[in-house]
UniProtKB/TrEMBL annotation:
Membrane topology value: Single-pass type I membrane protein
Source organism of the structure: Selaginella moellendorffii (Spikemoss)
Class in the EC hierarchy, top level: transferase
UniProt subcellular location: Membrane
Keywords: ATP-binding, Glycoprotein, Kinase, Leucine-rich repeat, Membrane, Nucleotide-binding, Receptor, Repeat, Serine/threonine-protein kinase, Signal, Transferase, Transmembrane, Transmembrane helix
Cellular component annotations (GO), alphabetically ordered: membrane
Protein name per its UniProtKB record: non-specific serine/threonine protein kinase
Stretches that traverse the bilayer: 526-550
Gene3D superfamilies: Phosphorylase Kinase, domain 1, Ribonuclease Inhibitor, Transferase(Phosphotransferase) domain 1
Domain called Protein kinase: residue spans: 600-871
Sites where the protein binds ATP: K628
Amino acid sequence: MGLARWAIQIILLWMFLASVALAVTNPADTAALRAVRVGWTSSNLNWNGDDPCGGWQGIGCDGQNVTSLDLGDFRLGGRLLPAIGDLVNLRTLILAFNPLITGLIPSELGRLSNLEFLGLNSNRLDGSIPPELGLLTNCTWFDLSENNLSGELPVSSGIAGVGLNNLTSAIHFHLNNNSFVGRVPEEISVLPNLIHFLVDSNSMSGEIPAALANLPSLEILRLDNNNFSGPFPNITRLSGTLHEIHIRNNSFTSFPDISSLSQLLFVSMGLNRFPPQALPSFSTLRNLQSLELDGSNLSGDPSALLLISTLETLSLASNNLNSTLDLGNTSPSLTSIDLANNRIPEVSRAPPSSSYSVTLGGNPACNTPNLPSYINCSSNALGNEAWRPRQNCSSTNRICPREEIFNEASCTCGIPYILRFQFNAPTFSAMTSDRNEALRSEIARGTGIFIDQVWVDNFVFTDNFRFNATVAFFPPVGVRELSDQVKTDILRRYVLHTIDLIGFDPYHVFPIDLGDVTIRNGNGGLSAGAIAGISIGAVLVVLLVAGYAIRQKFRADKAKQATNPFASWGGGGKDNGEAPVIKGVRSFSFADLKKATSNFSSSHEIGVGGYGKVYKGFLLTGEVVAIKRAQAGSMQGAHEFKTEIELLSRLHHKNLVELVGFCFEHGEQMLVYEYMAGGSIHDHLMDQSKVFSWNKRLEIAIGSARGLSYLHELANPPIIHRDIKSSNILLDEMFVAKVADLGLSKVSMADEGKTHVSTQVKGTLGYLDPEYYMTNQLTDKSDVYSFGVVLLELLTARPPIENGKYVVREVRTALARGGLEEVIPLLDSSLEGYSARDLKRYLSLAMACVEEAAAQRPSMNDIVKELESLLGSSGGFRGSSIGGGEFHAISLYDDDSVALSSAGAFEYSGGYHISSKVEPK
Ligand SMILES: *[C@@H]1O[C@H](CO)[C@@H](O)[C@H](O)[C@H]1NC(C)=O
Ligand SMILES: *[C@@H]1O[C@H](CO)[C@@H](O)[C@H](O)[C@H]1NC(C)=O
Ligand SMILES: *[C@@H]1O[C@H](CO)[C@@H](O)[C@H](O)[C@H]1NC(C)=O
Ligand SMILES: *[C@@H]1O[C@H](CO)[C@@H](O)[C@H](O)[C@H]1NC(C)=O
Ligand SMILES: *[C@@H]1O[C@H](CO)[C@@H](O)[C@H](O)[C@H]1NC(C)=O
Ligand SMILES: *[C@@H]1O[C@H](CO)[C@@H](O)[C@H](O)[C@H]1NC(C)=O
Ligand SMILES: *[C@@H]1O[C@H](CO)[C@@H](O)[C@H](O)[C@H]1NC(C)=O
C-alpha cells in the first residue's frame, strides 16, 4: 500500500515535470481557441497567457495538441464561431448546458475528423443541422438534444452527398427536444452501431420507415411527442435488441405488433389514434416492467396483463375496459396500476398484498360503498413525488462536524462530492430499493470506489419518462474529503461517458456548482486517505494515471461549500445551545443561501410579506427551494425560532409544503422550503387565462383538506394552522395542492384535556372564524371555517370579500332565496364539467364548514371523505386540466395579511375592528 502510494507520487511528479518541459501548445490550436473565444461572453472563463495546455479552463491536451474542449455548464453565452473547425485535433467537444449559447451550428464543425464525442445539448442553438456533420465519422456520441434546432434531419442523397447516415461510428443519436420537422429518414437504418435513437419532443411527421427495423443494434427508440402518423411498421426484426419503445402522443393509426419483442422492458404507446380493439395480453413480453397505453381505444379485461411477473407500473387510463377486475393473482412487482376513466364495474378479488393501489376514479366500481383501501377513487395515479431511499443507519445521532454530511451508506460523516444525474431513457418508471442498490453498485463499480462511498437520493421522474437523481461520492471512512484530483477524475469519467452504468444508460451529468475553479495540474499527489478509499487495487491506479495522462483540466466543484445538512445548531449564530434533534432538516450557512439566491438579488424574489421576503434559491445539490428571510423587525427570539423549526421539522405529509432547512447565522433567520412551481391557487383563480376544471378543483380541495386533516388529527402534538386561505395553498409542478405557511400555527392543547387555546386573534380577513374572533378561543374548527371559505373561493374564483360583499353571506343568502339556481350567477363563469347534484353536495359541504357555531362544522377528516366521494362520483379523469394559456411559476409564498392591503387594511395586533360590512352574520 505504502509502495503504491509512493509509486503514484513518483508518476505524478514525473508527469508534472514532463508537462512543464512541454509547455508550448501547438500555435495553430492556440490561434483557433482565441478565435473561438471571440464569439463567447463569459464572466468566468479565464483564458490567460499563451499556453492553453498550461492551464486554460476546460482545455485538455495530448502533447502539444488540444484534444478536448469541455466547457459544459459554464454560463457561456454568445455563438459558436466557424473557427471551431480549426481545432482539428479535438476528440472531445462539450459545450452542453450553456443555455445562453445561441445561433447556428457552423458547418465547419464537420472538419473535426478526429471528433469522438460531441455534446452540444441543452443550449439554445437554432437553425438546422449542417449536413457536413456527417463527416464526423469517428463520432460515437452525437448529442444535440434540448436546443431549438429545426429543419429536417439531413441525409446524403447519392454518392456525393453527406449527412447523418454517414456517421457510421455513432452509438448515440440524441436529437430530442428540438423543433425538427419532416420524417425519420430511411437512410439512417444502415448505421451498424446505433443503440439509442432519441428524437422525442420535436415536430416530426410522416410515416416511420419500415427499414428502421434493420438497425442491428437498436435498444432504445424514442419517437414520442411528435406528429408521426400512418400505420406503425413491422419491427419484429428488432426482437433481439429492443428494450424500450416510446411512441406516445403521435397519430399512429395502427397498433404496433410488439408481441415478438421479448426483450422489451418499457412500452409507452398511449395517446395515438388506434382503432378500437381488445386489450392484448402481452403474455410473450416476459421482461416487461412498464406499460403505458392510456387513451388507446382498448376494451376487454386487464386482469391477464397483471400476471406478467416483472410488471411494475401499468397505465391503461381512459380506455373502454369493461370487465370485472380480478386482482387475486397479480404480480408481486407491481407498484402502481392506473385504470382511471374506464368502465370497470367491480373488483372481484383483492390483491395478495396491498403494497400498491389501483386508481379507479371514473369507473362504476368507485360508486360502491365501503371500498377497500387499495382502491383509489381519484382520477390521478400518484404524482411524481421524489423517491427517497430508506435511511439505513440505526444511529440516531446524525449530527456531523461543520461542512460534513452524514453518509447513510456507511453511517459516518464526510464531505461528499455531489453530482446530479439525469437518466434519459430509463427502462422502468418506478424506483425500488433493489434498483437503487443496483444503481449504487454500478456507480461504485464504474468509479472504482466502495459501495458505501456512494449514496443516491432524490429520484424524480419527469413527465416524459426520464428521471433525475443526486449522487453523493463520499470519501472513505475516516477521511474527511476526497482530493480535487479524485473529484476531477470522477467528473471527467461521467461527463465523457467512459463509464457505462449498465441498465441506466444513457445519462447526462451536472456538476452542482458552476465552475469558476480550475483544477491544478496533476502535481499535487493524492492524500493518503483518498488512496486508501479509492481502491487498494492496481486497476484504479492505472485508471487514475490514465486520467491525468491526458491532462484534463476540469474545474472542481467546491464541495467544501456544499450544504451541510446536519451541522450543529447555530454554528455561526449566537445561540450556542444544544443541537436540537431535527431529523431531515438542514442547517444552511448564510454563505450557502447567499449563493443560492445570487446574493438575495431582486431577480430571485418571489414574494413579499409582513414577515420579510421570499426568494427562489438554487442549492448546490441541484434542489430548487423557496427561502423565507425574516426582515429586521419580524425576527423572533432565538428560542422561539428554534421551537418553530422543531415543530415544523416534525411535519411530513405530501400535502404540506416541506421544510427543507433553516439558517441562523449573521443575525439572520431564514426558513428554507421546497419550491412550489405551480404557484398559489389564489393566483390561479384570479387569473382569467387559467381555468381549473371541476375535477381539478375537487382534487385541490382534497389535497389541501388532507394536509389540514393531518395537522389536526395525525400530527403530534396536533396543530391548528390559523391562516388557511387560498394564497397559502400552493401547487407543485404536478398540481398537487400543499398547505403552506405554518408560521402562525399553534400547537393544539386538545391532548392536554383542553378543547381550545386562548390566544390573540390572528388570521386573515375574510377567512376568520366568527366564533374565534368573538371569543378568542381557537379550535381546529377555526381552520374548518377558513377552509369552507376556500371551498367557496374555488367555486367563485373571487376573493372572499369583494366590493364589500362577503362570499359566505352572498352564497347563504342566494341559497335561502332560491336554492341552486340563485347560486349559479355567483360561480366562476369558466367552471364546467359538473352536475347539479355534485354542485349541491359541494355547496352543502362548504356551507357546513362555515356554520357559525363551531360545533356544527364537520371535522377535516369528514371533509376529506365527503370530497373524495364527490370526486369519485363525478368521474374524475387522468391528467390535469389547466386550459387556456401557458402555465408558469408566479409569485407565491404570499405572506400573512399583506395580500389583503388592497381589500382594506386590517390590523391584527390588538384593538382590531371588523367593519360591519364584512362581518359574517
Ligand atoms: C499534433 O497535431 C499536428 C497537426 O496539427 C499533427 O501533425 C501531430 O502529429 C499531432 N501530434 C500528436 C502528438 O498527436
Ligand atoms: C478514427 O478512429 C480510428 C481508430 O479508432 C483511427 O484509426 C482513424 O484514424 C480515425 N479516423 C479519423 C479520421 O480520425
Ligand atoms: C426557436 O426558433 C424559432 C424559429 O425557428 C423562433 O421563432 C423561436 O423564437 C426560437 N425559440 C427560442 C426559445 O429561442
Ligand atoms: C455518405 O453515405 C452515402 C451512403 O452510404 C455514400 O453514398 C456517400 O458517399 C457518403 N458520403 C461521404 C462523404 O462519405
Ligand atoms: C414482420 O416481419 C417478420 C420478420 O421480419 C416476419 O416474419 C413477419 O411475418 C412480419 N409480420 C407481418 C404481419 O408481416
Ligand atoms: C365490453 O365491451 C365489448 C365491446 O364494446 C363488448 O363486446 C362486451 O360485451 C363488453 N363486455 C362486458 C362484460 O360488458
Ligand atoms: C431534471 O434535471 C434537469 C437538469 O437539472 C432539470 O432541467 C429538470 O427540470 C429536472 N426535472 C425534474 C422533474 O426535476
